[in-house]
Amino acid sequence: MGLVSMNEPIIQPLTTAQHEWMLAVAYVYLQNQQYESAVVLLELVLSENTESIDAIKSLMYCYLMLDRLDECIKAGRRLLMLLPKPINGNYAKVYLILAKAFYRLGDQANAQKSMLKYRGMNNSHDV
Fold it and tell me: How far apart are CA 33 and CA 58, in angstroms?
C-alpha cells in the first residue's frame, strides 16, 4: 500500500452539485460571450462526465462561435449519438449549428443535409 505524496493533489470526482455549478457558470460565460472561459469549464465537466448532453451542446456552440469548426462538428456528431431516439424538436438546433459549421468550412452538401434535418424537425423555413 503506497502513501500519497504531500506534493501531489488528491483529485476527487465532481459531485452532482459541482457539475451543476460548473454548467451554470459556463452558461453565464456563454451569455457574456466569454466562449474561451466557458470552454475551459465545459471541457472539465466532460472530463468527469463524458455523456453530459448539456455540456456537449454548450461546447458545440462555443466551438462554433470561436470558429473551431472541426471541433464543433465532432461535438455535434457525438451529441447526436448520445441523444435518445427519436431526436425531438428540442434538439433541432444541433442540426442548425452543424449546418453553420459545415457552411463555414465550405462543405455545402453536409450543410444542406443538416439544414434540411433542422427544418424538418423545426417545421420552419425561416432561418
Answer: 12
Provide the residue type at 54 as one letter: D
Q: What is the 3-state secondary structure (H, E, C) of the chain?
A: CCCCCCCCCCCCCCCHHHHHHHHHHHHHHHHCCCHHHHHHHHHHHHHHCCCCHHHHHHHHHHHHHCCCHHHHHHHHHHHHHHCCCCCCHHHHHHHHHHHHHHHHHCCHHHHHHHHHHHHHHHCCCCC
Query: Is the pTM for the entire model greater than 0.70?
Result: yes
* Closest C-alpha to 115, from 86, 31, 127: 127
pLDDT in tens, 36-62: 999 999 999 998 889 999 999 999 999
Please report, as a single letter, which amino acid is at residue 93. K
Q: Which residues, in sequence order, are CB contacts of 87 under 8 Å at separation 6+?
A: 80, 94, 121
Length of the chain measured in residues: 127
